Amino acid sequence: MSDLTRRTVLKAAGATLGATAFAAAIAPLTQWKPAESVDEFLRKHYKELAPDELDAICRRVEAEAKTSRGIDVHVAAPQPIPGVQYGYALNLSICVGCRRCAEACHTENNHDRPSHNSYIRVFELDNGSIDLATGDATYEHPVPAKGKYYMPVQCHHCANAPCTKVCPVEATWKEQDGIVVVDYNWCIGCRYCEAACPYHARRFNWKKPEIPNDEINPDQGYLSNRVRPQGVMEKCTFCLHRTREGKLPACLEACPTGARVFGNLADPDSELRWVLANKRVFILKEDLGTKPTFFYFFDK
Q: Strand (E) positions, the chain?
């Protein structure tokens, strides 16, 4: 499907559905992205773009921010680092459920403010249970609570990611460094990927994101934290605009207990590999065969 474009998808859909049904099917797209130009809508897939084409797109996003909001942002498209396979591990023995990771994600990734959206949900669970269905992600009492432990859940960047397999236009894929990404301008908002994700890690922009100009993070990545349009899917990207530049994810830096470990799975000397070799590690929903690169562990 390397030659697949939205032009061919829409043409095929029109031939299959008929004019009336096709018009109804694409109506939400015309409502969600009224400002998108024809050139942007019909451009080549992200993976087919030459460096100069990708740079031109980033400059266009910067110009749009200046025109629409009157603010200066820098949009980059950092590429995977050769020899790096990113992974994440979370120590459930010391996570206290403070949700500072979710707050940092909210701020770093330019989420809609009224919805308090974040790519991270923190579940409060009874000691001895790992059933998320019994967990509470809306607790408001002081933490940590007696008899409880806390499990933050976000995208697991699976090696066998079901979300990437169901996208009809290849708007989401796994990069060479293991990060699963979404091209927001290629996404058609069908939400198949959201339904396929067993970790409920994807978010859908039902409304145009509302963010005060003075709260927008100006350091943005094209495939990560730039302000997303209405009607598209989004998800955690391991803060690739940071991590591919040698920094740590915002959620890790915000954690007050040091419960989060991020690193290179391909490096046998990394802290992450040490954790996986020496701690009591488990994989959430391992029986599904998704092969996550996000792990949980206990000290004992």
A: 74-76, 86-91, 121-126, 148-153, 172-174, 180-182, 203-204, 219-221, 233-234, 260-264, 280-282, 294-298
Backbone angles phi, psi at 235, to 5 degrees: -165, 170
Q: What is the per-residue pLDDT for 246?
A: 97
Token look-up 């919805």 returns: 115
- pTM equals 0.87
Q: Domains for the chain: give ranges and CATH numbers.
A: 78-300 (3.30.70.20)
The CA distance from 226 to 175, in Å, is 18
Handedness of CA 145, 100, 294, 180 (dihedral sign): positive
**143 with 150: CB under 8 angstroms?**
yes
Per-residue pLDDT reduced to its tens digit, 74-120 = 999 999 999 999 999 999 999 999 999 999 999 999 999 999 999 99
Give the whole-angstrom CA distance, residue 76 versus residue 239.
Answer: 13
Q: Per-residue pLDDT tens for 10-41?
A: 545 544 555 455 445 545 554 444 455 656 66
172-195 in b/e form (b: 16+ CB < 10 A) is: bbbbebbbbbbbbbbbbbbebbbe
| Per-residue tokens: 29 | 């797209």
Q: Given this model, what pLDDT does residue 281 score?
A: 98
